[in-house]
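SAMPLE LOG
Freezer: B-3
Tube label: C17
Construct: single chain, 339 aa
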Amino acid sequence: MFTASNLAELIGGEVVGDGSVILTGIAPADVASAGDLTFAEKPSYLAAAEAGMASAILVPRGFESATKVLIRVKDARIAIAKVLPLFFPPERIAAGIHASAVVDSTAQIDASASVGPHCVVGAGVKLGKNSVLMGGNHIGRDSHVGEDVCLHPNVVLYARTQIGNRVNIHAGTTIGSDGYGYVFDQGRHRKMLQVGNVVIHDDVEIGSNTSIDRGALGSTVIGQGTKIDNLVHVAHNVVMGRHCLIMGQVGFAGSTHLSDYVVIASQSGIGGHLKLGAQSTIGAKSGVMRDVAAGDTVLGYPSASDKQAKRQWIAVSKMPDALRRLKSLEKRMNGSKEA
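STRUCTURE (predicted):
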């Protein structure tokens, strides 16, 4: 529970109206009730919020209201991201090791960490301060998990996985599984052993049912602050830079390198051994088969520059009409020949 003034101070905002109003929750404008905070980042949203029951509205600077208390901030969307944890603090999980967990005698578990039911923690594993294994987790030998890490149920770390601090990995994800490597030998596919590992740096979040393969020899690397959505496949020896955004159902072939702040939209496929430059963007459902320069945006399958791809789509949309006109001309020409 906060007053509007308390909340504004915490997020660097200013109150317009009664700063003593009590805020006990946060909700969308159409379902908010008395005591709730809502937010509006556009004038049309403000009108809807003013018509609702919320006690205060979080808005960008310059917004005015004759009927509601406002908390004005530089960026309402960023502010709401800061406010949500205040009303919905993370669940506090008690430290300790559940009786059903199997922990190797050589594992080093910090006293503040939590190992949930039915976890398996292998030899030489290190689990840092305040880190949590929610349950059903398998942590392979010699893996290192940093501080304030949360592995949701049924996350699996294969041997020698290295995870930094404040990493959040959602249910069903597998880190460090075999890379896809075979050589053709005398009529059959011979397996090429994948003996590397996966390194995940600080402040990474990985969605559910994602698979990140270990390197063939070196490491598959996920850079600091990168966010990976659900159902993503990262092949062996892919290296991602800092603060990349990878949307759902993206697939990477091996040894591709992403520089910092790369954005890849959903259902895209990225070929192997490519380089995606810093702040490049891959549009949804793209098939990337060539390097992408820093700052460029590509779209389509196969991918092309955004301007070229849009020209191609416009041209394709005009083809039915062009074909009709062509057939009409052919009929006229054939008719004139017969005459």
